[in-house]
Amino acid sequence: PPEQAARMKKLQEQEKRQKVEFRKRMEQEVSQFIQATGEPRRRFQPMNKIERSILHDVAEVAGLTSFSFGDDEDSRYVMVFKKEFAPSDEELEAYRRGEEWDPARAEERRRLRELAAQQEEAELESGPAPPGPPNDYKDKYRHLIGSDAAKAAARTMEANKAYGCVPVANKRDTRSIEEAMNEIRAKKRLRQAEDE
């Protein structure tokens, strides 16, 4: 029916208008964000997939980095970062877990990790540790799996040349099918002649 088609067209035009308006609004917000000096990142309110894709596009055009966070469709939101404040993997992981990113806390964690690594290194240099009960399953089964089994396995991962298509070089019989068939027929004829 024509009235339904007209209604559909009107709806589509309305949607298109809304998208254009939304894009304009996002462009304004993003340019405000760029001009805001003390703001390295901005979190936008949750929005639907189409709105998020528009915002990602606006951010990309503006030369910003953007990511979506949040598990379910209703609560997914976009965060926009200025290029010089692009997030580290650690920062992204925090947002993915739904936590606030605290650079001071992250720095503290990084220092603790470094310290632990230094201590471990010092222990390694001071000689073997006294034999004690193994507490890590890898230590427990080291005599079975070795310490570099995975590395060795990774190294031996090569394409199995015997699998799949056989390269001509590997074919013992280089005759064509016709030649092979003719040879078989000839042998058959020979045998029949001998039998007679």
Task: Describe the secondary-structure layout.
Elements: H1 2-35, E1 41-43, H2 49-61, E2 65-69, E3 77-81, H3 89-96, H4 103-125, H5 137-140, H6 142-145, H7 149-156, H8 177-195
Antiparallel strand pairs: 1-3, 2-3
Helix pairs in contact: 1-2
Radius of gyration: 34 Å
Proportion of residues in extended strands: 5-15%
- Which class best fits the helix and strand makeup? mainly alpha
Order of helices and strands: HEHEEHHHHHH
- CATH topology value of the domain at 2-102: Ribosomal Protein S8, Chain: A, domain 1
Instruction: Please give the largest β-sheet.
Output: 3 strands, antiparallel
> Can you identify the CATH superfamily of the domain at 2-102?
R3H-like domain
Name the assembly state.
single chain
What is the general shape? flat
**Spatial sequence of strands, sheet with the most strands:** 1-3-2
Q: Which stretches of 5+ consecutive residues score pLDDT under 50? A: none
Characteristics of this structure?
single chain, 196 residues, mainly alpha, Ribosomal Protein S8, Chain: A, domain 1, three-stranded antiparallel beta sheet, 58% helix
Description:
Residues 20-83 form the R3H domain. Residues 99-114 have a biased composition (Basic and acidic residues). InterPro entries: R3H_dom, R3H_dom_sf, R3H_sperm-antigen, SPAG7. This is SPAG7 protein. This protein has 196 residues and is mostly helical. The longest helix is centred in the first third of the chain and has 34 residues, at 2-35. The termini are far apart. It has helices at 2-35, 49-61, 89-96, 103-125, 137-140, 142-145, 149-156, 177-195; strands at residues 41-43, 65-69, 77-81. Strand 2 and strand 3 form a beta hairpin. The chain has a domain at 2-102: 2-Layer Sandwich (Ribosomal Protein S8, Chain: A, domain 1). Helix 1 packs across helix 2 (49-61). Strands 1-3-2 form a three-stranded antiparallel sheet, covered by helices on one side.
